[in-house]
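Email to the structure team, subject: Contactin 3a, tandem duplicate 1 model.

Hi all, the expression group asked for a predicted structure before they design truncation constructs. Nothing fancy, just the tokens so they can compare against earlier work. One-line instruction: predict Contactin 3a, tandem duplicate 1, return tokens.
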Amino acid sequence: AYNLWKLNDSFIVPRSGSRYALTGGNLRISHLNKEEDVGIYQCLATNSFGTIVSREASLHIAYLENFKTQSRSPVRVREGQGVVLLCGPPPHSGELTFTWIFNEYPTFVMQNTRRFVSQKTGNLYIAMVEPSDVGNYTCVVTNTVTKSSIQGPPTPLVLRVDGRALKVYHCSTVKLECFALGNPVPTISWRRVDGVAVGRKVDVNKASGVLEIPYFQQEDAGLYECVAENSKGRNSLLGVLCSYEEKKREKHNGVSLFQDRVQVNNGVLTISSLKLADIGMYQCVAENKHGRVFTNTELRVIAVAPDFSQNMLKPQTLARQGGDVLIECRPKMSPHGMISWRKGKEALRESHRYDGNPAGHLDVTVGESIVLPCQVSHDPTLDLKFTWFFNEQLIHFGNHGGYFEKRSAGDIMIRNIQLRHAGKYTCAVQTKVDSVSIATDVVVRGAPGPPVDFQVTEMTDSTASLSWGAGPDNHSPVHTHNIQARTTFSLGWQGVITVPELLGGKQLTATVIDLSPWVEYEFRVLATNAIGTGEPSKPSKKARTKDMPPKITPSRVNGGGGVRSELVITWEPVPEELQSGPGFGYVVAFRPQGAQGWMQAAVTSPDASRYIFKNESIAPFSPFHVKVGVYNNKGEGPFGPVATIYSAEEEPSRAPGRVRARSVSASEVEATWKALPWSNNRRRILGYELRYWGERERQETASVIRTMGNRTSVVIRGLEGSRTYFISLRAYNSAGVGPHCATVNVTTKKPPPSQAPVKIIWNTSNSKVILKWDHVRAMENESEVTGYKVMYTQDRHSRPNVVETNTTSLELALPVNEDYVIQIKPFSEGGEGSSSRQITIPRIAGGTFCLTRLERWASN
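Reply from the structure team: attached below.
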């Protein structure tokens, strides 16, 4: 026997010194070559009886070549935009993994919500470029088979800075061009951002978007904005027009200024530590190569000695003991001098009791209650009148919703303070001879107000870009923002996932991700500070995500049943919010088990949940592989997992055998039969259908009982006593019912006695109860009594205990301190008869008892 090997249908002939060798029939290859040794190998084994060929084996050689050595051009991107850095792996074989080095080893790019490295292409994606991203990026490629790694040439990433400032010569004509892409075609408009109106001489060509300024002057310089907008949104770009650089010189009384106290910056003249000598005329000279212009101004320096004539100190200031007092000192003087205070002849200095800058405000939080005191020291012979003002308006107590309450000694309480109660509160105290007032600013801190100008700036198939303006923080900085969304399919407002994931207090833009395609969304934003979460912003206008091919497939793919030659396929429809676009439908694919090709059918209704394929060639109860896919106007989506279902089966062809019926009681009959084979290639037995009817009834009105599974008996209840019934039985499955068996009949037993036990006598002795009653005699059409059931309970609502006896007496153990309720009923082969009336045995109080005999009569 010997072995031969083939490579790509050509025989391999090992020779001395070659890379091929045969060892025990195995082929050994040294120094693998990816050009020569890759291919399909087969082994042929031959002996005197013949030759056999092995299965084909495919050899692939893993390798990884080096990157090309040329350098890569810088990638320029604006701050806030996204960028893709291409890896471009070299020729290779075998699975690769990719990482990126930032600037130098071992600083690797960490993946997060902003950075992503594709393990298919090796490309590095940065969602929103920041200044910290600037640097050199190097792609590192690793072959998972050979474990070898190589580094590509570095790719510099730099921030792109657009030159938006345009220098213009004096008296020249300026043209600013603006063009924007969009669908529908956007309209172009221009405006000045610095608040200055566009001059009448400026011409805007709306058709071409060109702004033309003839005879350019210095007042035409400024910040201009081009705005492009259509029905889908708006965008804008800023540019600066400035006059050609000019030289400025300042003169004082015709002499150039160059003293240390004088500074000139950007055309602004600043003189520190003014002196009387600085009084005079000042002249600004501006010049460039086109000419020179002058402008003049006069500087006057005011020097005034301190003067109290206009703001005299009050001759008397009243203050309450232990309180605070403010004495204002506001003399007129220039320059501003030093102020000092004396008490009598003693000079005052600032201390914990004397403060030259008294605080006049109070911080509170929404919902708190505060008391604003107003107390004064006064002559006890004078009557005081307290009056409170809120923001200079008189407070009428009782007219502010119960928030303001006047307290004793002139104090005022504000209950459950709200944001609208912030402001200046003034307490005025009057007597017949004098008046005094004190004011306090109340600052109310609360949850933030709703953000403003909330809008959707861009929508994709799964994301929404949002922007908003800051609302009032109500004296507590905003810590976080939260985005919520709702659709016609959601239960109210729901939280969403955003990029960045955590929205800080100063964040005014966000991108919502993981949205469903082709769904109309509304968004809103809520701000939160240390006090709590404020009211949400107004909802955005409804915006629909873009459509895309569907990704969600139907669930619960099943089927079976139907009539002969049918294949019934069912599924759970895909909800509207997951259909990803208009024109949604289903692609039903099926094939007989073991077949290769698929048959397909399109179901165009998005609400459809079944498809029936009918063909006379379909064998009964034959297995099919089934899968259901989806599509819409954007394209086809995936297929769901393959399920195995069976075509429609045939109805049972045989009737059950050995059908028997026997009377169990006057109201019950038991029917039994021999089961049919549970299943075969064409038919299954899912259960049996039993029909029964009385001798005075028609078969068409028969009652029906259906069993599930392979049961072989059933008890029919609710029948009448001493009556003949007819019973018929047949098998059924998903295709229908089989033939009936031969009809059998059975007669129910006589009914039990209708009379209840009477003359019930009981007595107690120690802890026993002895019961006796008269025997119940059956009527002619009733079955004879075979025994009695005695039911007793300690509670009318609890389950009774039952004792059976074939005599007319019974002895029971009776617990102490319990009442007993007793009933007695006869029974016979026809069932249980009527019960006696209830008998109550009084509780036993304990101790030793005398024999007491009582009678209770019972009748129906």
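DSSP finds no helices and 76 strands in the chain. Residues 655 and 739 are 5 Å apart (CA to CA). Ping us if the truncation boundaries need rechecking.
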